[in-house]
Amino acid sequence: MSARQGAEAEMVEEVDRSGNVLRLVTRAQMRRENLRHRSVFIAVLSDDGDLLIHQRAEHKDLWPEWWDCAVGGVIAPGEDPEAAAHRELAEELGIDSAILQPLGSGAYDDESALLLAWCYSIVHNGPFQFADGEVQRAEWVKPHHLVEWLTAKNFLPDTLALVLPRLVSYRAVIA
Known about the structure:
By secondary structure, the protein is an alpha+beta fold. The protein has a single domain (3-174), classed as Alpha-Beta Complex (Nucleoside Triphosphate Pyrophosphohydrolase). The protein is 27% helix and 33% strand. The longest helix is centred in the middle third of the chain and has 13 residues, at 81-93. The relative contact order is 0.21.
């Protein structure tokens, strides 16, 4: 079984808008039917306040090769959001320990994704290891260069809507 087939068979909790679990479905079914699920997003900031942005791999099941302002992913069935955030940091960036700063949670709805997300930030200067193959490349962006990046590239709309407004240092830039 390929990594993509394994991901498609992964089980995901379908939830209502309040976060109550309705049933378990495969990730493939969740994407195909655009079912609401739980996710985590983690913004990575440097000591200087730069934001780590990254380009997603071409094999991603949603928004392949688009840019993202946060790492993260789908929360596993029964998994705590904070534990999921630590797992995603280890999988996507090779970060084994970090102090998570909670940024709050919220819902995101569009024709491609319905989700509830718990948002966090961390301060980490690297180095990073993109071991799971979900990140093609990453760049540090200064707050005053973010709008330039956002207008030049396709960025994931869910993290733009839920993470950037919660980052105090970037709130004024995107307003």
